[in-house]
Specification:
The structure is a homodimer of 484-residue chains.
Chain A: H1 3-13, E1 19-20, H2 23-26, E2 43-45, H3 50-63, E3 67-70, E4 87-90, E5 97-101, E6 106-109, H4 115-122, E7 127-128, H5 141-147, H6 154-157, E8 164-170, E9 176-180, H7 191-195, E10 204-211, E11 213-214, E12 218-226, H8 229-241, E13 248-253, H9 254-264, E14 274-282, H10 284-300, E15 305-308, H11 312-323, H12 325-332, E16 335-338, E17 341-342, H13 348-362, E18 366-371, E19 376-383, H14 390-407, H15 423-429, H16 432-445, H17 460-469
Parallel strand pairs in A: 2-4, 3-4
Antiparallel strand pairs in A: 1-2, 5-6, 6-10, 7-11, 8-9, 8-10, 12-14, 12-15, 13-14, 13-18, 16-19, 17-19, 18-19
């Protein structure tokens, strides 16, 4: 089917303004949050309901045209990068909160609903939706499911997959799947978990039932400063080891503290080598007691300064600093590359030392911010895209960081997904047997590979090429990898 | 390959005593906890290590012989029922705890390790493994993963899938898969969750890395008695709605209380229409505070008696009653059939009324015990297998209960799996599109359907036959189903 015919087909099922094909109309869709990669789609469609999506999918399936789903486009790994010969399927118009059930503590929503909008709507019932990616003002719940998003609170409350109950999903053929249940478990293979984090490669999500939680009575935050980043890492481990599950447990290094303080004056200790933010939420009494315990552990772990937020304003200010870490990086450097690897907590200090060495080796600064409680690192590599070769250096630096995470027994993504960004590292993370299975599972859902092709799972060919330049976990060839 | 040749092949790779083929040797493997169904396998093998399992699988794959994996055989849905023309693969000899990492709070274990043995070994480090099926003294962690087992504590601490980090799995071809990671998330499709609860149909698990939690400082239990089962149900909802996540939240009806009291004198109120057990664990202060809140909610919900356990001995006695509910059923009836459905909590009272009606209709008594917090019902249908037709009536009664759970928006299994027991209800729980996908996912792992064939996913043929006698969610044909 030629381009013009396809436009006509879509126009026959959608309002005219919902079918975009002129370059200037397609421009807003050319990238997601990983803006170093850009590609115009052939056509973009903006359906308003599930029936229209079914018709779109049937056309694409019949004509073997790739389909890339898109929420708000805030993803950081290129998962929503359009396909040059494909259709960009925006789910932005499916933005209704269909039902809030305050007894069952659930909300049934369309995929284009913004993450924060769910909590805003649930607030009237004293409820909220727990996972809170930094982009929660803008990002959509459909995108959250596709990437299995996390956030500051996921240490205590889990990732997206732990906070959803049911999904309504369309197959590439346009069939409706109803998966999951309102119960804790669901029989048969766990398609709900399989769909979570599948990056638009298995089906198109049209409805999501999320869990809502009662808004905690109280929340309180401790900011602890350390003169040594290893002590800060030990404090994190000691808190977890004491059986405390904080509502948030974050860490920032010296360069991040400086950048943040210069930017928004969060009140962090500017002399610290690292600070740890630790939040407790729950009933007034439980929070008061837990905060005392946290302060005690910080003290025993060698903190040089321990501040408990004096009132809600200071608590928000402490958090504002953490949440401003990415824009703060943007102020001290023309460009930055945000990484997302996870490691077992016990290797934190070792991995940080290694990142410092790489920083010298590549001649690029690196700010370190992390969800310390779950070992999820967000190194921010600072570079200047206008200086020849710096982007490439930043990417190579980033790739090395991910490889170190894998070598440390961790994973190449904590919450940002694989997308197109981390395809090469997937060749390191998994062997042939696992990758073969990923492809087999993909084929079980989408035999012609029309749904977001080329993302998340590297082709065997790509891994062979990558392997040729980059020996898989070869100790001899990788003398600079840390031995854990 | 003929039987004798197959025995010889296995004997060439296994010690002689690890290959069983005589009827008397096979007898112990003829059923699991669903003992109404029995079948001798052709051969049973008891490998001692992964290398031996790989050889066994290669032989079975080459000869297209079905393989049924078995842990301790405590499963209640017939998942480990042998295949008449197949090999029963016992994992009992793979029973080593390979490593406990007290810093990362993980244990790496073989599949044949008993659930409770993990907590016993971790106790020296002040740690334990949270999921606690009633059978935890006997059941194995491999079986727990295969069934995604729950237990009293899973309301607070999650099902098995939420408490495992990594799996080592063999495909039917004998390839090794390493899935999951020590981090919170893992890239690629979520094969860890897909494997959990897959009932031995996708691969053979040879190693499991589980999460360990710090043993709580304190645990305390409230026993509340109600003169009306609906009030008890409301109390459960009110506790959840108040943002409390109890370590256990269980409910029993009048008949269960009577049976339990006659059996072990747990100290329950014998006049109550229902009792609710609610446990809090954590630090001393947090538990004391939460117990006060729980007592307050019980009072407001209309409890006629509220006892907080006076000391550890009484706490254990209150729990002993709950844990003895199944054997207590065995004392008041020659046989009982344990069901396992889940429903949204809000429909608890309605579903219980419906079960009572069915009890009259079928002329069989039914005791009701449930993990009330997560809406997981365990109706125990009492019958006498020696009375002609009673088993069939019990099965029909049980099937109706599961159908009501599905109709109420719940699910046909909470934690016991589908096995062979609930294949018909899977035809009601899911439509063709979902079942097609289950088969496609199965084929992606096991193209010749050699791993535990005939379990968990009904064939299209079976559903067509079942549908012919039993119209799918047909309101007209099902006038007796409750409308929610």
């Amino acid at each position: 089917m030629r381009h013009a015919n396809l436009v006509e087909s879509f126009q026959s099922i959608l309002p005219t303004e919902s079918v975009l094909y002129e370059t200037e109309d397609l421009k807003p869709y050319e990238c997601d949050g990983l803006s170093a990669y850009r590609q115009l789609p052939m056509i973009a469609v903006l359906p308003g309901n599930e029936a229209e999506i079914i018709e779109i999918l049937k056309i694409c399936e019949a004509e073997k045209i790739p389909v890339v789903a898109r929420g708000a486009g805030t993803g950081l790994s290129g998962g929503a990068l359009p396909h040059a010969d494909g259709v960009l399927l925006s789910l932005a118009k499916l933005n209704e909160i269909l039902e809030i059930d305050p007894v069952a503590c659930t909300a049934r929503v369309q995929p284009g609903v913004r993450n924060l909008a769910i909590s805003e709507a649930a607030e009237a019932y004293g409820l909220y939706y727990a996972p809170d990616p930094s982009s929660q003002i803008a990002c959509t719940i459909g995108g959250n499911v596709a990437e299995n998003s996390g956030g500051v609170h996921c240490l205590k409350y889990g990732l997206t997959v732990h906070n959803i109950l049911k999904l309504r999903v369309l197959t590439i053929e346009g069939d409706v799947l109803e998966i999951g249940s309102e119960a804790l478990d669901s029989p048969g293979f766990d398609l709900l978990a399989l769909m979570s984090g599948s990056e638009g490669m298995l089906g198109i999500i049209t409805e999501i039932t999320v869990k809502l939680l009662p808004i905690p009575e109280a929340a309180q935050l401790v900011m602890a400063a350390f003169d040594d980043i290893e002590k800060a890492g030990a404090a994190v481990a000691n808190i977890i080891r004491a059986g405390i599950v904080p509502a948030g447990l974050e860490m920032m290094d010296k360069m991040t503290i400086a950048a943040v303080e210069a930017f928004i004056h969060a009140g962090y200790d500017p002399d610290a080598a690292a600070i740890v933010l630790c939040e407790s939420d729950g009933s007034n009494e439980a929070v008061a007691e837990e905060i005392e315990k946290i302060r005690g552990i910080m003290r025993e772990s060698g903190a040089v300064r321990i501040d408990t937020a004096r009132g809600e304003a200071e608590r928000r200010r402490f958090w504002a600093g953490r949440k401003a870490a990415f824009p703060a990086a943007g102020r001290v450097s023309p460009d930055y590359y945000c990484m997302d690897g996870t490691i077992p907590r016990k290797h934190l200090a070792e991995v940080l030392r290694r990142i410092e060495d790489l920083s010298s080796e590549f001649g690029l600064r690196c700010m370190n911010v992390f969800h310390a409680g779950d070992g999820n690192l967000h190194p921010l590599i600072l570079y200047d895209a206008n200086r020849s070769g710096e982007l490439e250096k930043a990417e190579a630096f980033g790739a090395r960081i991910l490889e170190i995470c894998i070598e440390a027994g961790g994973s190449l993504t904590g919450e940002h997904g694989v997308g197109i960004e981390k395809l090469n590292q997937m060749c390191l993370q998994f062997g042939d047997a696992e990758r073969d299975l990923f492809h087999a599972v993909k084929a079980a859902f989408d035999p012609d590979s029309l749904l977001n092709p080329g993302k998340a799972i590297p082709s065997l060919h790509r891994c062979a090429e990558f392997g040729a330049m980059h020996v898989h976990r070869g100790d001899e060839q990788f003398p600079d990898l840390p031995r854990f």
